Each structure stands twice: as structure tokens, then as C-alpha cells.
Amino acid sequence: MPSSNWSLHSQLKKDTIDIGDLPLCKVLVIKDAHYPWLLLVPRRENAVEMIDLDEVEQAQLMTETSRVARALKDITKCDKLNIAALGNLVPQLHVHVIARRTSDVAWPRPVWGVMPPLAHDAEEVQNFINALRRKIWLG
């Protein structure tokens, strides 16, 4: 169950498209068409670090991260997955799951700050979201 006082950080709201909730995490798509890029945000108040979750929640976060990563890899046929929980700019605990290709604009560097975000084509992002929702059992 989500924490009753939990809310999504305002910067994450601004930068993402909400596609649904798994048992622990809200699943979001980053608004940057350069990369298939997802975020998982545990719906727990005041969670900044993974260690702020109890051991059962930590295991659930890993399960949900793995589920989303497998789905993203299957849908995108990417060359590499980048999975990270940094939180240097947004303190709310969130896990990035990014499908990388050797042909993407940032390869082989990390994606942050390489290019300004590229707006998604509305139909393409909706098709991506629909495929992802089916693969991770959101609809």
C-alpha cells in the first residue's frame, strides 16, 4: 500500500508521463525521445535512499525494476540497459531504467546533459506506453 502522505516530486511530474502503478512503484516515462527511458518511484513518504525502504520493500523494488527492465529490453531490442538510482537533483527515491543503443546521441557516455530533451511524437509514445503496459501487467 502506498504511504498516505506520499506525492510525486514536482520535477518528476514535470519531466514524465505517468503510465501506472505497480504494487510499490509508480511507473513513468521520461519526456525525452532520444532514449526509451523509464522511472520507477516507490510510493513511500520520505524515501530518499534505497535503505529508507524496509527489506521487503527493497526486494519488491528489485522485482519491479527487473520486470520493467526486461519489458523495456524486449520492446526496444536495445544494446544495453542502464539502471541507476542517483537522486542528486531530485531527492525523492527513483530508479532510472534506460534502453541504450550504440547509435544513440550519448553513446557510450551517460545520458544526462548530453542533449536537450527531444519531444516525443504523440502516436509513437502512446504505442510505446501501450506495449509497456501490456508487458509489465498494467493493462
Structure, explained:
The protein is globular and about 40 Å long. The protein contains three helices and five strands. The mean pLDDT is 95. It has a five-stranded antiparallel β-sheet. The longest helix has 22 residues. 27% of the residues are buried. It has 139 residues and is an alpha+beta fold. Helix 2 crosses helix 3.
Can you lay out the helices and strands and say which pair or pack?
Elements: H1 10-15, E1 16-21, E2 25-30, E3 37-42, H2 55-76, E4 80-84, E5 95-100, H3 122-135
Antiparallel strand pairs: 1-2, 2-3, 3-5, 4-5
Largest sheet: 5 strands, antiparallel
Strand order of the largest sheet: 1-2-3-5-4
Count every beta strand, where a strand is a DSSP E run of 2 or more residues: 5
Beta-strand fraction estimate: 15-25%
Model regions low in confidence, pLDDT < 50 over at least 5 residues: none
Determine the fraction of residues in helical runs and give it as a percent range. 25-40%
Shape: globular
Question: If you compute it from the alpha carbons, what radius of gyration comes out, rounded to the nearest whole angstrom?
Answer: 14 Å
Helix tally? 3
N-to-C span: 19 Å
Give, in order, the helices and strands.
Answer: HEEEHEEH
Structural class: alpha+beta
Give the mean pLDDT.
Answer: 95
Quick tags:
5-stranded antiparallel sheet, 139 residues, alpha+beta, 5 strands
Give a brief description.
This protein is an alpha+beta fold and 139 residues long. It has helices at 10-15, 55-76, 122-135; strands at residues 16-21, 25-30, 37-42, 80-84, 95-100.
